[in-house]
Amino acid sequence: MNDVQKTDGPRLLDVRDLEVTYANGAAAVRGVNLHVDAGQKLGVAGESGCGKSTLALALLRLLPAGAKVSGQILLDGEDVLTMKWGRVRAVRWAGASIVFQGAMHSLNAVHRIGDQIAEPILLHRKATQAGAEKKVGELLEHVGLPAARAAAYPHELSGGQRQRVMIAMALACDPRLIIADEPTTALDVMIQAQILRLIEQLVAEQDLGLMMISHDLAVLSDTCDRLAVMYAGRVVEEGPATEVYERARHPYGKALSATFPRIGDPASRFAPRGLPGDPPDPSALPTGCTFHPRCPVALESCSTEDQALREAGPHHRAACVHAGAPLPAQPTAAPATAERTP
Ligand SMILES: Nc1ncnc2c1ncn2[C@@H]1O[C@H](COP(=O)(O)OP(=O)(O)OP(=O)(O)O)[C@@H](O)[C@H]1O
């Protein structure tokens, strides 16, 4: 991404020209470039089906068999794509770890949460049982839960508490990068805000890198320093969070920011609804700019000419023929009357 170049050593995460094609021919990630440095928070936004989860899974080589991956995923300068499996397994906990959405599905219902958090510590840190238990207590307290909750089973905790457990587990082996895939999607708005503040606090305290994935641009702009907006497997807009959220230069970024107004904003109830239609099938992408069939400001040329990312403002880039100037006025959509959903 186009921000100030880091000069002292490799970036924490540096993704270059990443392509992922599933066995059925779905081109889910197409030429993605992005990076995260220590202490930085990158938000990756996009509707369902834009390739966000595929990107996250690719970073730690968690994709299903048959998926073809090319490009580079440099974690502290070391390419995850060419690592031996033993090294990949170590990196998954100690280099980077993932917090998934829906903690109830990610936690094992029949094991106490303390044992589940201890497992990677015993396995990858070669800790003693006593050492692991001590670390589990510290981690739980760190995420705002009493150490004694280690004895609880997942069903004895609330949704927010379970998500705190997932975060504790992600931190178990002191990773340097956290990948959070829709970490608050299943939670109500109050709890969502608490979990986001917790993630922010941990990132700042431990100088971690954060890559947070969400369909909700407002949540991301509230939490992250920079945003990358994905559409049909590509980054179509990127830049400082406020800049992208408030002055989107790609019509897709603009539609996403209108669909997800700021948390607590009373105007949110009257915000325009999202775009009609769905992202394209990655096995049969449209010609030209893949967004053109849904774009309210497309030119005739957009159906044949693809656009690369180009300067759209300070450290801000957009892959749109209109990127160099404020977007032309768009037809206004019908006002939404429902409360925003997290
Ligand atoms: N295992 C798979 N095999 C084939 N296609 C897949 C597979 N997993 C995902 N896809 C397709 O790849 C595209 C990107 O999916 P992905 O889950 O990465 O998107 P996403 O933006 O994370 O959406 P969501 O938020 O719903 O997870 C979609 O069209 C999806 O149908």
Automatic annotation (TrEMBL):
Compartments reported by the entry: Cell membrane
Domain ABC transporter intervals: 13-257
Coiled-coil spans in chain: none
Main location: membrane
Gene3D superfamilies per the UniProt record, alphabetical: P-loop containing nucleotide triphosphate hydrolases (3.40.50.300)
Transport listed as a keyword: yes
InterPro entries membership: AAA+_ATPase (IPR003593), ABC_Ni/Peptide_Import (IPR050388), ABC_transporter-like_ATP-bd (IPR003439), ABC_transporter-like_CS (IPR017871), Oligopep_ABC_C (IPR013563), P-loop_NTPase (IPR027417)
NCBIfam families: oligo_HPY
Protein name: Dipeptide/oligopeptide/nickel ABC transporter ATP-binding protein
Originating species: Streptomyces alfalfae
